[in-house]
Design a protein that fits this description.
Length: 145
Amino acid sequence: MDGDLRDNTPEKATALCREHGIRFNSENHPERSAGEILAKIGGGNEWLGVCIDMGWLGTQGVSGPAVIKACAPFVRHTHVKDVKAAGKHETCALGEGAADVAGCIAALREVKYAGWYSWEDEPEDRNPFDSAVRNREWIEKRLAG
């Protein structure tokens, strides 16, 4: 499960996850560093991890590969997304924006990430079905190395 802890402390969230047998991944949005991302989950543990949203790293103007490497033991899900420019959250085709999506995928491969890669797009000006095939091929090419 991905999302935000809301009013739960990392300790309370850990206890709830353990009680129900569910792992939870906090998705980065406003955070600007690995330290901020990990602080939200109390540093991480077997129950609390992170979902790296590459587009939000681009929106915040931070190095996605550096964040991924610093959070590596707790990266358990990814949102593969690109944004047109730092400071705004307007999605675009993968590899054409401000998020270092190719670098993020390379960093995930480097740290031996074996989880899910979820392509995410939030178009307001286009039909995402038009870019789905293109973006899938773009991702697969980078995953093949």
